Structure formats: C-alpha cells, structure tokens
Amino acid sequence: MSRIGIFGGTFDPIHHGHLITAQSVKEIRNLDKIIFMPAYISPHKQHAKASSAQHRLNMLKIALDEIPFFECSDYEIKQQTISYTIDTLREFKKYFDKIDLIIGYDNIFQFHTWKEPDEILKLSNIIVLRRKSSYPIDYIDKYVEAAIFVQTRAIEISATDIRNRVHANLPIHYLVPKNVEDYIYKNNLYKE
Ligand code: ATP
Fold first, then answer.
1. Considering Cα of 116, then 120, then 122, then 123, what sign does the dihedral take?
2. What's the pLDDT at 135?
3. Cβ atoms of 60 and 72 closer than 8 Å
4. What is the domain count for the chain?
5. Within-domain flag for 176
6. Which residues line ligand 1 (CB under 6 A)?
7. Best exposed site among 50, 129, 190, 191 by fewest CB in 10 Å?
8. The model's pTM
9. What is the pLDDT of residue 139?
10. Domain contains 187
11. CA–CA separation, 77 vs 54, rounded Å?
12. Tens digit of pLDDT for each residue in 86-108?
C-alpha cells in the first residue's frame, strides 16, 4: 500500500523552498510520492488576491514535470469553491490508505480553527515542517501534541518575496525553477 504526502498551498508561485522541503519530507517519512495540492481558494487567504488557479497549476506542472515522486492535483481547483482540507482528504482516502498531510510550521498553531480538525486527524498524519530557524513551541493543544514535526532545511524563500521582486523588476533566478521563471515573464504575472 503506497504512502503518500499531500502538500497544500497557494503556490503563487511554487518555489525552491517548497521543492527542497518536500524532498526532505519524502526522505524522512519514506513516502512513495508527494501530491502538491493548489487550493482554489485558501480558507486562510480568502481576501488575498492570488493569480488565476490555472496559472498556479501550470507553474506546478512545469516545475514537477521531471520529478517522478512529485505530482500535482487539480482536485481542489476543480471544486471551484473554498478549499477545505477535510473535503480533500475524504476524497483521497478513497484511493490511498496512508496519507501524510504536510503543513507549514505556523499552520499547526492555528489548526484548531480549521474545518473539522478532529476528522482530519483521523484520516491523516499531520506532518509539520519545522525549519531549523523555527521559533520554539510555546502553544500546545491536542493537535500540536498529535502532530509529527519533521526537521527540514531552512530555505528562506517565500512566494510573497518572489511576487514583490518581479513587481520591482528584480531578478528571481535561483528562487524558482528556470521554467517557472520563464512562465512568469511570458505571462506577465505579478506586474500589477
Ligand atoms: P506566500 O508568501 O504567498 O504566503 P508561501 O511561499 O508561504 O506563500 P504557500 O503556497 O502558502 O507559499 O505555501 C504552501 C506551504 O509551504 C505552506 O504550508 C508553507 O508554510 C510552506 N512553505 C512555504 N515556503 C516555505 C519554505 N521556504 N520552506 C518550507 N516551507 C515553506
């Protein structure tokens, strides 16, 4: 039975921080593959303006194209509604027995506000990316206790910074894969 990871996010755009971290998680958790899951609308970023779902998905596809153990799914995008993790997990549980849900360090401390957090815990392992630079844990609830913290490399790259740099006509090479960089310029993203 395959062990998969689901790595959700906005991915606007996907960058090397995501890729390097996902590679570490795959190794540490001994996963067969990781499915990158771009949200149609993230419940936590409902008021933020994101690039079109199609652009975000296209960038993921070209970034992951040649990596056999990374895939992306258009499941949440196809739902065309707010992307709640529990709904996605219920769907993927039909096909995969063991699911690692990969979330960022900050997310675990807000986890109690997610939709049906106890059900999420029943359907998946919560894997928290604990970067070496992460601040210490000073909040504990049952979700923090149940989570599995994995020590990943600290790669200080954020999509916000990339968007800001493109907007300011600063280079973004080394921050994103070359084909993603080309896609951003070709489609004139992040200029508005
Ligand atoms: P933004 O700057 O737009 O908020 P982001 O770079 O944090 O975006 P997301 O798409 O929100 O990217 O990230 C998806 C997941 O990846 C989140 O759980 C986030 O915590 C995690 N993540 C993002 N950047 C890194 C990084 N450099 N290292 C490790 N995890 C990261």
1. positive
2. 73
3. yes
4. 1
5. no
6. 9-12, 17-18, 21, 103-104, 107, 129, 131, 155, 157-160
7. 191
8. 0.96
9. 85
10. no
11. 8
12. 999 999 999 999 999 999 998 99
Check: CB of residue 32 under 8 Å from CB of residue 69. yes
Q: How far apart (Å, rounded) are the C-alpha atoms in residues 17 and 98?
A: 25
In the Cβ-directed half-sphere of 103, how many Cα atoms lie within 13 Å? 21
Q: How many helices (H) and strands (E) does the chain have?
A: 9, 6
Give tens-digit pLDDT for 169-179. 999 999 999 99
CA neighbor of 143 nearest in space, from 101, 116, 106, 108: 108
pLDDT, tens only, 74-83: 999 999 999 9
From 129, 131, 175, 176, give the residue whose CB has the most ligand 1 atoms within 8 Å, as the site to mutate.
129
Beta bridge partners of 4: 33, 99
Domain that holds residue 112: 3-156
Distance CA 100, CA 53 (A): 24
The answer to whether the beta carbons of residues 41 and 83 sit under 8 Å apart is yes
State in Å: Cα 158 to ligand 1 middle. 6
**Beta pairing, strands 148-152 & 33-38:** unpaired
